[in-house]
Amino acid sequence: RCVCYGLGRFSGCPAARDQLAFLLLLLEELGVPPGQCSLFDPAFSAREAAVLGQLGLRLLPENEEGKHGLEGSATLFYMVHCGNALYNNLLWRNWSAGALAKMVIIGNSFRGIEERLLPRILKRDYSYIAKVLKGTEEVALPAHPQYLDTFNDTSVHWFPLQKLEGLSAEVWDSVEEPTYQDCEDLEIIRKDGAAAAAEP
User: Fold this and answer.
1) What percent of the chain has pLDDT over 70?
2) Residue 104 near residue 127, CB atoms below 8 Å
3) How many CA atoms lie within 13 A of 192 on its CB side?
4) Taking the mean position of all CA atoms in its chain, how far away is CA 32?
5) Any idea where the SRR1-like domain is (predicted)?
6) Where are the alpha helices (DSSP H) in 78-118?
7) Cβ neighbours of residue 134 under 8 Å, at least 6 residues apart?
């Protein structure tokens, strides 16, 4: 299965079109049927939604705020240039070694997030990203001069079960749902529509 968040307005944005093309090629390469790929972006127009339907892709009926459960199936999450809160929410929703081990995330480099944020801000606002770092394998997408803006800071992340099981018990004990009350630059579109846009 595949879930895609934050693709953007591909009818008017070349980078979003390139990201959509890469997603379609990726599904083909991995043998994932288009009907097993679900997308959501509150920015999609009716015409864009229709185009995605014609491509055989499924639109998620509502804004999950990144909180998509695996339901036992191995799932690729395609989240290029999404806000940190979406990754954090996704990790929270699937916070167990068994679930995380079935997940692959293509999106903003977790190492890059760690480098850009003060440690106290990372732990306070994005605690699930902070806690999973030692259980993560990450490989950056190769740079290509034609697509520097399209896939900059993008990595493939996966979570080997052996690494996850090596994390301390305290890592798994706290499972509070993230609220982001103190977060000043929250980059997520909330269900009620009150938040900021995705990263450029």
Assistant:
1) 92
2) no
3) 1
4) 18
5) 1-158
6) 84-93, 97-100, 110-116
7) 163, 167
Q: Which are the contacts of 24, defined by CB distance < 8 A and separation ≥ 6?
A: 34, 55
DSSP 146: G
Distance CA 41, CA 4 (A): 9
Collect all residues with Cβ–Cβ distance below 8 Å to 111 and sequence separation of at least 6: 133, 138, 155
Which neighbouring-strand residues pair with 79?
A: 107
pLDDT tier at 180, thresholds 50, 70, 90: confident
Q: Do the beta carbons of residue 16 and residue 80 sit within 8 Å?
A: no
pTM: 0.91
- Domain residue ranges in the chain: 16-62, 84-141+172-183
DSSP-H helix ranges across the chain: 14-30, 46-54, 84-93, 97-100, 110-116, 119-125, 127-132, 148-151, 161-165, 169-173
Q: 67-80 burial by CB neighbour count: b if 16+ within 10 A, else e?
A: ebebeeeebbbbbb
Task: Please calculate the CA angle 182-187-38 and round it to the nearest 5 degrees.
Answer: 130
